[in-house]
Amino acid sequence: MTKSFLDTPIEYLKGVGPARAKLLFDELHVRTFNDLLHHFPFRYVDRSKFHKINEAIPDQAHMQFKGKLRGIRKSGPPRRPVLQAYIEDDSGELGLVWFKGIKWLEKSLKEGQEYIVFGKPTKYKNTLNIAHPELDLMESHQKIQEKPIQPVYSTTEKLTSKGLNSRGLERLIRNLFETNEIKMIENLPASVISSYQLAERSEAYKSIHFPYDQITLEKARFRLKFEELFFVQLMILQAKGKRQRLAGQIFGHVGSLFHQFYDEILPFELTEAQKKVIREMRRDMKSGHQMNRLLQGDVGSGKTIVALLCGLIAMDNGYQVALMAPTEILAQQHHEELERLTSNMDVRVELLTGSTPASKRKELLPDLASGKVNLIIGTHALIENKVKLKQLGLVIIDEQHRFGVVQRSKLWRKSKVPPHILVMSATPIPRTLAMTLYGDLDVSVIDELPPGRKPVKTIHRYDNTRLKIFGFVKQQIQEGKQVFFVFPLIEESSKLDYKDLMDGYESISRAFPLPEYKVAIVHGRMKSENKESEMKRFASGQAQILVATTVIEVGVNIPNASVMVIESAERFGLSQLHQLRGRVGRGNKQAYCILMTSVKLSAEARTRMEAMVRTNSGFELSEVDLNLRGPGNLMGTQQSGVLNFTIADLVKDAKIMNLAREEAWKILQIDPELNQKAHLYTFAYLNSYKKQHPDWSSIS
Ligand code: ADP
Ligand code: MG
Fold first, then answer.
1. 3-class SS at 566?
2. Strands 545-548 and 121-124
3. Ligand 1 mean position to 559 CA, how many Å?
4. Where a domain ends, among 576, 591, 615?
């Protein structure tokens, strides 16, 4: 079968025509034969099994019974007749009812005969009935037994009304297989097929729709999932391989800046985990190849210092370093902290963001271009801007899942000899996701927190106990602690959220009055100089309370702040809650995180609150999150296209993903460009796959 056959518009399939074709496209996005072929059943019913009638459960599933047909009778007005009957076995009776096709049924149904009945029992006036059951005479049992597993397809009301219910779709797909023998070219290398005894491609497509038995079905599903994950991994690993073969700048020595900082300034001993990841990066940066590394570490694990130490190695070798933060506030924070840490060193640190005044910018740009600035900190604007650097050696991206494979790829196409890349990710994400989103990166993990950290105590309370919470907060302030109150302001433009925030601020200001208490506030609508001065009031300890929106989500480091109250916590996602909680518990005092919600909670929100109370592990939370929301939502819309799999499931198919990645890796070891004869069809398929995923294909 050639590719062009499957590209045939669905209209030309037997049983479709223009009207249904339009409907199929509008409702299911099925445009071609190929699309229909990929409309896989979402479940199957096993028709080899019979239930006893007294096992019938209402409104849940299709079930199959056998028994004698009895009591056939017509009722209702002549213009809208109803046909009723019941089926009887040794355990009981079950009603059957029809509203259509009655004339024909009256003629063909045989009272007292043994029938097989299939359908969904529903409850009506306290009795169970099946409306429009499928009926087969027991004599034809043999025929059903030959194909006992029936596909069930997702469909819509509109399609159903035009005869395209699950059965109707099944018929179309049968037509597709019958019009032409579907022969799909095998796209997996023979070696892979044989080592896992995978189903052949054509077989797999046939079996996923019309499985012969449970085993063929499992094999077909496995094969198609494997195939899907294999090609994603092949693409990612090939891009990675290409980059690894590119030349990289060589940071040959560790010099005086690194040593000065390490020996004289560093205020604490590095954890073993921090030392280990620095060694890994050091090895990359002197290898002669470009480093592309993901540094994973839970909130508070000390990634900033690690980044700085790597930066100093770059500077020791005469290179400049850029640090990109996801928000302006975080960029400012990094700037402040890193400038402070290097204040006694011969290192110039600068900040460049969207709100850097034009005059400052004018002064800064030439100094960047001439190499006078050693470390430049900013937001993403940094790379998109017309910022020229004399010798950029290392780019550090401090990110919150906001910078996927695709966006990152823009970076390394900027210069001839690309800079080394270090991506820091605060939330440990589930492995399967990491392999997809960061699959092109090498990974270093800081799996240890600095010593002396007490785990944050997390408590869930309802709104109506607010006064008690205020009392608790006062007590904490008396002990010298500082407190965050966080309000959701998911969309900066949302008027309602803004009002909630201002109302909250007022009531907190009333409950914590001057002069004893001072309350600072930051939110997205403030001018950045006001934000900055309010943050300073809090950071310096002048104000005991900071009322804030999620702008403090990332990075803010105020060790004395050890209580965090999160208002309307049910409106935050798990990863956000975890990030927020990571802002407290950085000092040596016992820290608290109080999740305030309304009393009415959705089941999902309750699961989130319970998970937060139960564990401090970002990794565990990310698994919960993945199960709650699925991969697309988890990572935000930016990457969801990448995570739209036809059949594979990143939550459930982690094992298959591992195998697929391993195999893809093996193949590329032998044949990096896939130009061996044995890989001809794999190569061809990969190219067409890339065309279907334009975002991905720009990676290499
Ligand atoms: P994150 O990994 O979330 O970015 P930070 O780099 O902001 O964490 O570090 C959190 C806090 O821990 C900072 O105050 C930092 O100075 C401190 N810190 C980092 N490493 C150590 C260490 N080895 N020992 C003690 N404190 C450390
Ligand atoms: Mg950080």
1. strand
2. unpaired
3. 10
4. 615
Task: Tell whether the model's pLDDT for residue 239 goes beyond 70.
Answer: yes
Instruction: Tell me if 428 CB under 6 Å of ligand 1.
Output: no
Q: 174 and 57: one domain?
A: no
8 Å CB contact between 120 and 144:
no
Top-confidence residue, 61 or 294 = 294
Cβ-contact 131, 97 below 8 angstroms: yes
Compute the distance from residue 587 Cα to the ligand 1 centre, in Å: 10
Ligand 2 centre distance from Cα of residue 326 (Å): 11
Residue nearest to atom 4 of ligand 1 (CA): 303
Beta bridge partners of 64: 118
Which CATH number characterizes residue 101's domain?
2.40.50.140
Q: What is the pLDDT of residues 310-359, one digit of tens each?
A: 999 999 999 999 998 877 878 888 898 899 999 999 999 999 988 888 89
- Does residue 555 fall inside a structural domain? yes
Compute the half-sphere exposure of residue 4: CA atoms within 13 Å on the CB side of its CA: 0
Q: Is the CB of 255 inside a 6 Å radius of any atom of ligand 1? A: no
Residues 326 and 341 in one domain: yes
Tokens read off for 363: 């002064």
Cβ-Cβ contacts under 8 Å for 596 (sequence gap 6 or more): 461, 462, 463, 466, 469, 565, 566, 567, 568, 569
The residue range of the domain holding 103 is 48-146
Give the domain CATH number at 469. Answer: 3.40.50.300
Cite the DSSP H helix spans in 370-523: 381-384, 405-411, 431-437, 466-478, 495-511
User: According to the model, what pLDDT value does residue 552 have?
Assistant: 59
Q: Are residues 277 and 392 in the same domain?
A: yes
Would you state the structure tokens that stand for residue 550, as one six-digit string? 């999620």
534 and 481 in a common domain = yes
Question: In this structure, are 6 and 55 located in the same domain?
Answer: no
CATH of the domain at 168: 1.10.150
Q: Which tokens is 675 given?
A: 């130009």
pLDDT of residue 554: 46
Same domain, 412 and 539: no
Specify the DSSP element, H or E, that contains 597: strand 592-597
The total number of structural domains in the chain stands at: 4
- 135 and 158 together in one domain: no
User: Which of 278, 304, 425 best tests ligand 1's pocket when mutated (most atoms within 8 Å of CB)?
Assistant: 304
Instruction: For residues 463 and 570, state if they share a domain.
Output: yes
Q: Rounded to an integer, what distance in angstroms lies between the CA atom of residue 192 and that of residue 668? A: 13
Nearest CA owner, ligand 1 atom 25: 450
> E-assigned strands of 11-142?
43-46, 63-75, 82-89, 92-98, 114-119, 121-124, 127-131, 134-137
Which residue of 301, 308, 329, 338 sits with most ligand 1 atoms within 8 Å of its CB, as the best mutation to test the pocket?
301
| 502 Cβ contact partners less than 8 Å away, ≥ 6 residues apart | none
Q: Is the CB of 296 under 6 A from ligand 1?
A: no
Q: What is the pLDDT of residue 646?
A: 84
Give per-residue pLDDT as tens, 142-155.
Answer: 666 667 788 989 99
